[in-house]
Write a structure and sequence with these properties.
178 residues, Beta Polymerase, domain 2, 33% helix, 7-stranded mixed sheet, single chain
């Protein structure tokens, strides 16, 4: 598979914008967008789109030569183009909100469980302004599984830049701030 560079990100976001599809970055490029510069190589581009834009997204991506690579759930799948570029697509349902068992407002049932407000982040990729997950949501999102060294570096950079406390899970796993 090909690495996803900043020019690829800008190209793909511009293509989706031409089809009036709003996109939020998450994952590694979402971290780098918040930081305002690329910190590492990226194997894919993680994006979030509205469930209402699913058909338009499929049409736009198929026109660019993307085909389904892997389906993780009804609300999350990965597409790949002939150049080997991977895009990991996440759906969010803005049509309704619910309150979870912790009392947190979440976007509706026809998408992944994004907290209301979690997509208010703003950043840049190669000087292009982009929407993304907030730094706080990105940091919390890295605690829902066993993180690796790359996750730790991403979280540490966000915590230092946005004055967020480093989650204790990283210390428990033996990661220490340097």
């Amino acid at each position: 598979m090909a690495m996803m560079n900043a020019a690829d990100v800008v190209e793909l976001l511009s293509r989706l914008e031409q089809h009036t599809i709003e996109v939020w970055l998450n994952g590694g490029w979402g971290v780098d967008a918040l930081l305002g510069h690329q910190t590492r190589e990226h194997e894919d581009l993680d994006i979030t789109i509205s469930a209402a834009d699913r058909a338009a997204h499929t049409t736009a991506m198929e026109a660019a030569g993307f085909i389904t690579y892997r389906v993780d759930s009804d609300f999350n799948w990965v597409v790949v183009d002939p150049r080997g570029r991977l895009v990991d697509v996440h759906l969010v349902d803005f049509s309704a909100t619910t309150v979870n068992e912790s009392g947190v407002s979440m976007y509706g049932p026809a998408g992944l469980p994004f907290e209301v407000g979690s997509l208010e982040g703003r950043g840049t990729v190669a000087d292009k302004p982009v929407r993304c997950e907030t730094a706080e949501f990105q940091v919390r999102g890295h605690t829902g599984y066993t993180p690796d060294e790359t996750d730790y570096r991403d979280v540490l950079a966000l915590c230092r830049t946005f004055d967020i406390e480093v989650p204790s899970v990283f210390e428990q796993l033996g990661f220490h701030q340097s």
